[in-house]
Design goal:
Spore Coat Polysaccharide Biosynthesis Protein SpsA, Chain A, three-stranded parallel β-sheet, 10 helices, 29% helix, globular
């Protein structure tokens, strides 16, 4: 199977995009990565040229494609069509698309390749990935309805799939395969001044001047209403230097003991070994947990009284209507994070 990457980028340094981490996360599983690089003012073109496996398509953004940020899908399609021109006639060729503030986790590489094979064999021409949207730091994940829980991030090159709108996803595909592979979205975790500049300038891509004030107020309301959960699971290793630069912790210190009400057999032993606790006690019921420890206990499938007495704010899925239940291991990760228990780094 031929796997390639493609994306768009402009002024990646000016706006503090994690583009090096994004492209670096694609490199291990992609033969090459096609990047539509818009004419920039900050040295982005030179920075991208220094990276491996990159095919650069030089572009100039059409500022008239302003309403609805159509310029973003147009630039995405430039990269996709350049990739297709070179490889669409080769059988079993796929393109993985990431925006330059999105990163793949190295633990998912085998899963991605396995799922692309399953998608190919089952006649699918696109594949969705799960999403973690980080909000304002690297340890809060947004979950309310505004945030998409999954999105198409791989398309077969000889399909009719195309990017559309503001390049959130793809359309015109015939059959979609749903993968458990994750995209780590860091678009809202940047250097403060560059983030404010990016927020202001991105609004110019969506709305005409006479509508800007209205939509800026709406965006502020949406931001203030963002619901988040703590996340102390693992980040992609390629993000470590950046996370440390933001002075966010890479891992939490180990706790002495954690009680988990649930079935140990439902989890991979390797995952259990990564729970950062000196001792893990598995219980069938909260009644088996000493009373002094019950408020810190993780209950995987709480009954009604458990929900009332031992409250947890972690739902089984994001709040979008199209969200699927989280996997058991991700749900446990989030419930552990709520108790300030992380995974070993």
């Amino acid at each position: 199977m031929n796997v390639f990457g493609f994306t768009l980028l402009r002024n990646g340094i000016k706006y503090d995009y994690s583009f090096r981490e994004c492209l670096g996360s694609l490199k291990p599983i992609c033969k090459s990565i096609y990047v539509a690089v818009g004419k920039s003012e900050d040295g982005t073109e030179e920075a991208v040229k220094e990276l491996e496996k990159i095919v650069i398509i030089d572009t100039v953004w059409n500022e008239e494609l302003r309403e609805g940020a159509l310029i973003l899908s147009q630039q995405t399609n430039i990269a996709l069509e350049a990739l297709r021109a070179d490889y669409k006639d080769e059988p079993e060729s796929w393109g993985i698309y990431l925006q330059c503030d999105e990163v793949l986790h190295e633990e998912d590489y085998d899963l991605i390749l396995e799922d692309l094979r399953k998608a190919e064999d089952s006649g699918c021409d696109s594949m969705t990935f799960r999403y973690l949207h980080f909000w304002m730091d690297h340890h809060h994940v947004a979950i309310n309805k505004k945030w998409y829980p999954q999105e198409i991030r791989a398309v077969k090159l000889n399909s009719r799939n195309e990017s559309w709108g503001d390049a959130q996803g793809f359309r015109n595909g015939e059959k979609v395969y749903h993968s458990e592979a994750r995209v780590y979205h860091y678009g809202h975790v940047r250097e403060e001044n560059k983030y404010k500049k990016k927020k202001a300038d991105i609004m110019l891509l969506y709305h005409q001047d006479d509508k800007l004030a209205k939509y800026k107020r709406r965006e502020k309301r949406y931001d203030n209403a963002t619901e988040t959960l703590l996340y102390f699971g693992k980040h992609p290793e390629i993000m470590k230097e950046r996370i440390m630069r933001f002075q966010d912790p890479w891992t939490l210190s180990a706790v002495a003991k954690v009680h988990i009400v649930g079935e140990e057999k439902n989890f991979d032993p390797e995952f259990i070994n990564r729970i950062n606790s000196d001792e893990i006690v598995w219980c069938r019921s909260i009644k088996e947990v000493p009373k002094s420890e019950r408020q810190k206990t993780v209950i995987l499938e709480p009954k009604l009284m458990d929900k009332l007495i031992h409250r947890s704010d972690v739902p089984v899925r994001m709040k979008s209507k199209i969200a699927r239940d989280w996997s058991p291991e991700f749900l446990l990760t989030m419930k552990l994070s709520e108790r300030l228990i992380g995974l070993k780094g």
